[in-house]
Amino acid sequence: MHADLSKILLTEEQIAKRVAELGEEITEDYKGKFPLLLCILKGAMPFTSDLMRAIKGPVQVDFMAISSYGAGTKSSGVVRILKDLDHSIEGQDVLVVEDIIDSGLTLHYLLDNLRSRRPASLKVVTLLDKPGRRQVDVKTDYNGFDIPDEFVVGYGLDFNERYRNLPYIRVLKPEVYE
Ligand code: PRP
Ligand code: 7HP
Questions:
Q1: For site-directed labelling of 75, which of 107, 119, 151, 158 has its Cα 20 to 30 A away?
Q2: pLDDT for 119-137, tens place per residue?
Q3: CA nearest 50: which of 10, 25, 22, 86?
Q4: Which of 5, 8, 14, 46 is nearest to 169 (CA)?
Q5: Which residue, among 169, 160, 78, 80, has the nearest Cα to 130 in the 3D structure?
Q6: What is the pTM assigned to this prediction?
Q7: Tens of pLDDT along 17-28?
Q8: DSSP letter at 162?
Q9: Annotated active-site residue in 102, 112, 129, 137
């Protein structure tokens, strides 16, 4: 059924355990606050959905859709806002929720854009990080897993819009996109 996929990099159990840990850490750090979880569509949707329930305190949720990939496995470097926030974030504690940081180009653009809207604080949680692929220096505050330089799909991550619904994270065979 998944002839284009190779090994499972992260199982459902590994993801669930790490999301629970991140939820505890974020709960502690935002005690007494009402953070806005800013889910970056589409990839961060499952992660946001699980993470928000692992945070034991009040949270707000909003969404942005930005795209720099289109069809393929390399960031175009041209970031477009496809859907913007519903409300102003001025004075709010914003926590950007990403599925993966690869070149860093998307996050770099996004953080610049969000900073100009003057939130009270701006942090980033990412489920996956590929530090070996970085083209610009971006800092994350919470990081689920560092992963090698392989194209991965599942748990929200796609290749040409496929595989987002896999409950685990798998590697896409390089011959599929090379
Ligand atoms: C993916 C991912 C990040 C970005 C990371 O989004 O969700 O936003 O790429 O890559 P970068 O660090 O190289 O910029 P994508 O543009 O594929 O949109 P999607 O979440 O809708 O699939
Ligand atoms: C974006 C992206 N989407 C899916 N899988 C990966 O490994 C990716 N890196 N950057």
A1: 119
A2: 999 999 999 999 999 999 9
A3: 22
A4: 8
A5: 169
A6: 0.96
A7: 999 999 999 999
A8: B
A9: 102
